[in-house]
Amino acid sequence: MSPSDDLDIIASCAAEFGAVEIARTRLELKVQLPVPLADGRSHSYRLVIAIFRGVATAQEEKPHLLPEFCPARHINRDGSFCLFWRAVDDIVIDNVSAARMWWETLIRFLQQQVRAARLRHWPDAKGRAHGEKAAIHQLRAERAAGRLGAPFPEDLADGRLIVEVSNSSGHGPAVRLLHNGRRLYSVWRRDRRVVNQRQPCLCPKGAQRRPIVLKSCGDHGGAAADLALELQSMAEEERRFWNDFESTQCCGTMDGCPLAKRESSVRAERVG
Amino acid sequence: MAKNWKHDRAADHIEKKIKDVETVTIVDYVRDMSLENIPANKAFRVDGVHLYADILNLTDMLNVTADEGVTCHRRTLRFLNLHYRAVHRILARCDARRVDFHNQRLHALIAKPYNAENDAEAKRVRRAVAIAQLIIDVLHETGDDDEHIPDADVRVGIDTGEALAVNNGRRGGREPLFLGEPANHAAKMSGGGSNPGIYLTNNARLAIGLAEAARPANTPLTTAEIASCQDAADLGVSKETIMAEWREDLRKNPIGSFEFSRHTPPLRTLDMTTLTPANTKRQESASVYADIDGFTAYVARHIEETPEDVVRVFHVIRAELDRVFTCDFDGRRIRFIGDCLHGLLCDGTVHTTDDKETVSTATLCAGALRSSFELALEKLGDEGIDTDSLGLAIGFEFGPMTITRLGMQGDRVRCSVSRGVLTSEAEQTRCSGDETAIGPLAHDAGTKAVRDLFGSGRKVKSLDYNEAVEVLAEKGDDTALAAKRAAFSTPAIAAASERIIRPYSERK
After folding, report:
1. How many Cα neighbours within 13 Å face the side chain of A112?
2. Which residue numbers delimit the Cysteine-rich domain (chain A) (predicted)?
3. Test the A interface: residue of B461, B504, B508 with most A CBs within 10 Å
4. Whether residue B370 sits in one domain with residue B315
5. Is residue B458 in a domain?
6. Which of B209, B225, B252 is where one domain is finished?
7. What is the CATH number of the domain that holds B458?
8. Are B263 and B243 in a shared domain?
9. Are B241 and B355 part of one and the same domain?
10. Angle B177-B178-B183 (CA atoms, 0-180°, nearest 5)?
11. What is the pLDDT of residues B325-344, one digit of tens each?
């Protein structure tokens, strides 16, 4: 299909979502899109939608309601919205049903932007990690959490699990997994195994009157090690991701943004 | 139908209320002016003494039994009723004005002698001190051993100065409500400690020639200082006279026993004028306090130059909060306490309260109150009215609540008292102007979505209606899901708003 055909598919569903077509070229569609919220407000975005090889992108025609660039709000340097991770969640616009799914994703993305602007952080913990490498580690961590079972997937999704690296020993450094700030277990990084494999398993079998230990509870010892190490690798890759934007200005709309921290430290150095 | 908040509905109402107060008249209060039925766009500047009397052992009464059952509530209400009646007599005999009884707290105004008289302020403060001591003495004898009702321990706070008297917004608008530092500071003196006695602000101390205190809330008047005020004020009525009249009144008009029944939800349909001790409502509900943070300082900043703006801001915000609570969420407003709204919400049937739904509704309602508050500030700002530094602190709690009217026949006062009411007020006081706090019982009674939202600290920032609906619906809260579905009439938008997305960030 030509880009123009793909645009036709996108455009054919626009009215269902309240979008009004303003202009169209072979490669681009300009629309006015009102995005209703649960409280009855509606923010209207003027968007440019482009399509290339079945992949649709959207961005504000001019940065008006959203920042020009903000990785924390999933807006790329070129202003395009990073609606999903193509490697896993790709939506190829080759039929009307896919186009509808894309519109739904776009509208939900813009609804979440309103919440993000108010809360000064992304409203849920469902966003992918920043950058492809970090996202891969996040995906692996989610799979490991799934192997461990409830409540680990939900705790991970809600940001209740974090890792920290402890001092080196004969086994090299260890990675600690913390739940709401409380240590659950540690993992030897080099050996990729839980330090105390005799501790009760993290699943309900570990809470029985005669608990099953981690080492003997199926795959749970390995899953626990993977979860901690993948989270650690994800954090390292995210740090590298942010380092790539060293000279980029922060939009100032999100708390705890690494770009803002970098800016303020540069300012402090200059003042010093 | 799901209870909800709509931006346009709120905007229309706020605009109407702003129109009501386009022209505001401020009048200095002088001799023989009536403070009854003040129009919404008028206020009196009243130079007077504000007296707050707190009954310190109300909490003991509420905790007299391990469970918060009918016995505990019956005794507490009887305790308050006996004391309300006694205080009513004192104020009537001493020419003081009762502003309100709010559970354990009495607010009264001493406006006489007027400023035309020499040394009027000092005379008013001395009179207030004498009245305070009379209240303390009388309430120390108005218990009832037969009914296990103890005497009341009382702590009184007094301040003097200018405040604005405005319409209190109750049905008929019969009584005024006072805005400004003296009312607020007197309340802080009475609520600022657990020791009985009479506590004057430094303003009030200076007015009667006492030295300033480093910590006025920890410096009660001495017996000699009180006696000096009593001599100077010469109230002309003694404790013995009041007690004799109170006993005679009880003999002629005995307090009926408190009989409890449930009101079929929603509480909005409860007609409070029909409530008496024998027809008292009692059911598990959510008690909500929403207080305009920073308003006393706002009044102090504006009372001299632009008091009209105080009236505008107060009228618009209060009317809108009332509308949201009553019309959008079917709640029962109990009263306005200065710049604070207190009300109750209940979902369920005549037989049982739906605990989870009630707590979820209270959470959504708290979000809606904040949404309306912010919208009101925005629209007032558009009219060029200063609203800087104002916030809304919200607290709520769940549990068995009572609703009744106490006091003298023909002059009964609304009363809703319970452990939950006191906790909800305490939750509100631990919030800043952008925070909402939930009490421990509501936290435990709520859905997992509610518990996750408030977390272990039971407090959340910036919770408006949109955020409350979204965050609860995401975690499967049925009440929020119903509200969210009702919000989107277009199927495509409804589907979009339920889609789980996982946005990403690229290096490009």
Report:
1. 29
2. 129-259
3. B504
4. yes
5. yes
6. B252
7. 3.30.70.1230
8. no
9. no
10. 135
11. 999 999 999 999 888 999 99
Residues from chain A that touch B9, judged by Cβ atoms under 8 A, are 40
The first and second tokens of residue B317, run together, are: 């915000």
Q: Does one domain contain both B471 and B350?
A: yes
Q: Is B28 a member of any domain?
A: no
Does residue B355 sit in helix, strand or coil?
Answer: helix
Kindly report the CA angle at B176 between B38 and B113, in degrees rounded to 5? 105
Contacts of A145 by beta carbon, 8 Å cutoff, 6+ apart:
A152, A153, A155, A156, A161, A223, A227
Which residue is listed with tokens 């009674």? Answer: B445
pLDDT in tens, B12-23: 999 999 999 999
Same domain, B275 and B399: yes
* Residues B462-496 as b or e (16 or more Cβ within 10 Å = b): ebbbbbbbbbbbbbebebbbbbbeebbeeebbbbb
Cβ-defined contact of A126 to B502 (cutoff 8 Å): yes
Q: Based on the structure, what is the number of domains in chain B?
A: 2
φ/ψ of B371, rounded to 5, equals -60, -45
B285 and B208 within one domain:
no
Q: Cis ω on the peptide bond leading into residue B113 (within 30° of 0)?
A: yes
Helical H segments across chain A, by residue range: 3-14, 86-89, 96-119, 132-148, 152-157, 220-243, 258-271
Residue B26 domain-assigned (yes or no): no
Question: Residue A241 and residue B487: Cβ atoms within 8 Å?
Answer: no
Question: How confident is the model at residue A272, as a pLDDT?
Answer: 40
What value of ipTM does the predicted structure carry? 0.91
DSSP of B433-449, one letter per residue?
TTEEEE-HHHHHHS-HH
Residues B490 and B359 in one domain: yes
CA atoms of B356 and B140, how far apart (whole Å): 42
Cα gap B21→B40, rounded to integer Å? 7
Rounded to 5°, the CA angle A221-A222-A226 comes to: 120
Check if the beta carbon of residue A114 is closer than 8 Å to that of residue A38: no
pLDDT tens for B254-310 read 777 899 999 999 999 999 999 999 999 999 999 999 999 999 999 999 998 999 999
B98 shares its domain with B116: yes
pLDDT at A271: 44
State the best of A33, A39, A121, A254 to mutate against chain B, taking most chain B CBs within 10 Å. A39
Q: For residue B7, with 0-12 CB atoms within 10 Å meaning exposed, 13-18 middle and 19 or more buried, which class applies?
A: middle
Could you say which of B207, B226, B252 is where a domain stops?
Answer: B252
Q: Is residue B45 part of a domain?
A: yes
Task: Check if A240 contacts B (Cβ < 8 Å).
Answer: no
Rounded distance, CA B179 to CA B296, Å? 7
Q: Are strands B25-28 and B42-55 parallel, antiparallel or unpaired?
A: parallel
Give, as one character, the DSSP assignment of residue A213. Answer: B
Inspect the interface and report whether the beta carbons of A39 and B5 lie closer than 8 Å.
Answer: yes
Q: Report the C-alpha gap between B421 and B396 in whole angstroms.
A: 8
Q: Could you tell me the residue ranges of all domains in chain A? A: 3-119, 132-243
Rounded to whole angstroms, the Cα distance separating B252 from B245 reads: 10
CB-based contact (8 Å) between A114 and chain B? yes
Please count the helices (runs of H) and the strands (runs of E) in chain A.
Answer: 7, 8
How far is B110 from B112, CA to CA, in rounded Å? 6
Residue position matching structure tokens 């990403």: B504
With cut-offs at 50, 70 and 90, classify the pLDDT of residue B498.
Answer: very high
Q: Do A77 and B487 touch (CB under 8 A)?
A: no
Distance of CA B96 to the CA centre of its chain: 21
**Which residue, B33, B39, B107, B34, is CA-closest to B311?**
B39
Question: Residue B399 sits in which domain range?
Answer: 7-21+258-498
- Can you tell me the distance from the alpha carbon of B360 to that of B338, in angstroms, rounded to the nearest whole number? 27
Please give the pLDDT value at position A270: 46
Q: Say what angle helices B355-382 and B478-487 make with each other, to 10 degrees.
A: 40
